[in-house]
Amino acid sequence: MINVQTPTYADLVRPAERRMALAYDALLILGGSLLTALAAQISIRLPFSPVPITGQTLAVLLVGALLGSRRGALSMLTYLAEGLLGLPVFAGGMSGLAYALGPTGGYLVGFVGAAWLTGRLAEHGWDRHVWSAALAMVAGNLVLYALGLAWLSRFVGTKAFALGLFPFLIGDALKIVLAAAALPTGWRVLGRK
User: Fold this and answer.
1) FRET label pair with 163: which of 14, 19, 39, 106, CA 20 to 30 Å apart?
2) Which residue ranges in the chain fall short of pLDDT 50?
3) Which fold has domain 10-189?
4) Which 3 state secondary structure label does DSSP give 145?
């Protein structure tokens, strides 16, 4: 099997010189973490669930697709480190180990896997067409939900799906539609497939 890798958006202008390329990557990784932190501040608490509605999932999936698997995953690890160090980057300006180990901790860890998988699929051209981009976003969301729901169930038991999945399906579907439309459109604007 041939492993064909296509460039991500971030690869298009990456410098060839090694030190410049490392600095470029570091800036993108930090930028992706800050975008996720900003999206986390779009937070709506649900009175019946410990999981808020946020803009994070859209940011996580886009960061993965735009930066690729390694930079996307490193960006999410940076985001987690920022929150664990006390920066108010988690949903609603929260931070710290206690929050990360709370009911939403599995979703936070899932960000790393979701960004990696979405980025990996983008590296294989899945971000070039609406349907494959949508499938890449769904795959990333599945990683998020798998880890998030498994961890949430430690706190709410069998109610995990009712509290951590069902209320979010419509919003996540809208985020997927936005991302799946934006990514291929960007490639068309750039004149590349």
Assistant:
1) 39
2) 1-2
3) Arp2/3 complex 21 kDa subunit ARPC3 (1.10.1760)
4) helix
